[in-house]
Amino acid sequence: MRAVVRSEYGGPELLSLAEVAAPVPAADEVLIRVQAVAVSVGDVFLLRGEPRIVRTVSGLRRPKQQVLGRDVAGVVEAVGEKVTRFRVGDPVYGESDQGGWAELVAVPERFVALRPGNVDAVHAAAVPVSGSTALQGLRLAGVKPGQHVLVNGASGGVGGFVVQLAKSMGAEVTGVCSAAKAEHVRAIGADHVIDYAAEDFTAAHRYDVIFDLVANHPLSSLRRALTPRGTLVLSAGGGGRVLGPLGRIAAASVVSPFVSQRLRPLAATRNGDDLAELARHIESGAVQPVVDEVFPLGRTADAVERLESGAVRGKVVVEV
Ligand SMILES: NC(=O)c1ccc[n+]([C@@H]2O[C@H](COP(=O)([O-])OP(=O)(O)OC[C@H]3O[C@@H](n4cnc5c(N)ncnc54)[C@H](OP(=O)(O)O)[C@@H]3O)[C@@H](O)[C@H]2O)c1
Question: Mean pLDDT over residues 203-228, rounded?
Answer without folding.
Answer: 95
